[in-house]
Prior knowledge:
By secondary structure, the protein is an alpha/beta fold. The protein has two domains: about 1-45 and about 90-135 and about 180-260, 3-Layer(aba) Sandwich (Rossmann fold), CATH 3.40.50; about 45-90 and about 135-175, SIR2/SIRT2 'Small Domain' (2-Layer Sandwich). Helix content is about 35%, strand content about 20%. The protein has helices at about 15-30, 40, 60-65, 65-70, 75-90, 95-105, 120-125, 185-195, 215-220, 250-255, and strands spanning about 1-5, 10, 15, 30-35, 110-115, 130, 135-140, 145-150, 170-175, 200-205, 225-230, 245. The chain has a seven-stranded parallel beta sheet with strand order 1-12-11-10-4-5-6, with helices on both faces. Strands 8-7-9 form a three-stranded antiparallel beta sheet, covered by helices on one side. Strand 2 (about 10) and strand 3 (about 15) form a beta hairpin. The longest helix is centred in the N-terminal third of the chain and has 16 residues, at about 75-90. Mean pLDDT is about 90; it is low at about 5-15. Nicotinamide-adenine-dinucleotide binds next to helix 2.
Amino acid sequence: MLISDGGAPKVRGAVLQPITEARALVAAADRCFVLTGAGISAESGVPTFRSDGGLWKSYRAEDLATPGAFARDSRLVWEWYGWRRELVQRCAPNAAHLALARWAADRAGVTIATQNVDGLHAAAGGPPPIELHGSLFRMRCTCCEWREDGRGPIDATSAETLPRCARCRALARPDVVWFGESLDRATIERAFEAASAADVCLVVGTSAVVQPAASLANATHEAGGAVIEVNPVETPLTAIAAISLRGTAVGVVPVILGSRV
Ligand code: NAD
Ligand code: ZN
């Protein structure tokens, strides 16, 4: 395994030789699967759940992003989602999102799957990403199949002002996958199919602890493909990574995709 924290010359925090290897691997791959997590959006100003900025009014995300929290206090949960929507709307895709979008648009065989709900991959353009955990900018009905995209403010002043279904008037909820909920079956199947068929799985900015998303890299590895990880710190995936690049998404991703040297 190549790990980039040795003594070789550095390109913005990662050493040159593993970067050259990573560039060669992605350039030669017929099929590439990309898995991203909150870390890719950190340099756009979106806090990760596990950073200090991930706290809101001293609540932890794990206590708000659950079906139980919504059942107990839907107003509080909607207030938090309203705050997150506003926060993310002030953020723009960074050089890593943009390089991935351009790369996926320019060549066949690239699938981008994200655990993020911030919509920044979609905002970067290119083929639509697989949004494994849904989107902050979509809501759905708690009773029927209604769904709607939207970026407007959320009025969470009282239970009466919360978003409602346009079809049956039942309470609406954010169209995201909460802790304790299952991912949409067709979505995760599509992701596993692409991961298993990939020659290279590029993992960017995920702590790889949330399942089943974290197992996608294992699917590539078990099918004989190579895993390349970009993360400032070691993660559970480091053990299976052919190359582990200890740098940030913005510093490393554009370089390995050949958009910058
Ligand atoms: P995480 O917060 O658990 O881990 C983030 C990872 O990114 C860490 O391993 C960290 O070392 C790394 N990282 C930090 N800065 C980085 C940078 N500049 N470049 C590259 N890597 C960097 O996030 P996760 O693994 O995505 O899992 C948390 C869950 O929280 C997911 O299910 C996701 O849906 C949700 N979440 C989403 C967002 C978002 O949409 N932006 C934000 C917070 C949490
Ligand atoms: Zn409805």
